[in-house]
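User: Here's a chain of 138 residues. Predict its fold as tokens.
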Amino acid sequence: MPGNIRRGNRGHISGVTYQGVAEFIYLGTLIRNDNNVEKAIKRRILASNRTYLAAISLFRSRLLSRISKIILYKTLIRPVVLCGAEAWTLTKKEEQALLIFERKIFRKICDPKYENGEWKSRRNRELEEMSKRENILK
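Assistant: Prediction complete.
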């Protein structure tokens, strides 16, 4: 029956005409008629960045351990970025965007290390080891 409803950009159900749209937001998730989730993922990453900035004092605190900050990330920020992810079919580019976002947060949580007289950012392998090889895609 749904195949009969849609003709062009309009649908008729019980004498009522509905206009079709290319995208809309339903329960905070961007739904597109072409099933492209790239824009939805960008929206979720931006929302997660806002969540991080709202809690930045916790992530910068010297009173909290690194483990506590990772737990905060997993309970406060990761659910924001993964809201609606059950319906996503990801391409490699979108997977990379999610992994880059997560590594960015982990780099902020894990201070740079002092090596050979200079400060260096943590490498991806080090970040993976700190997160116990769990990432946002698993």
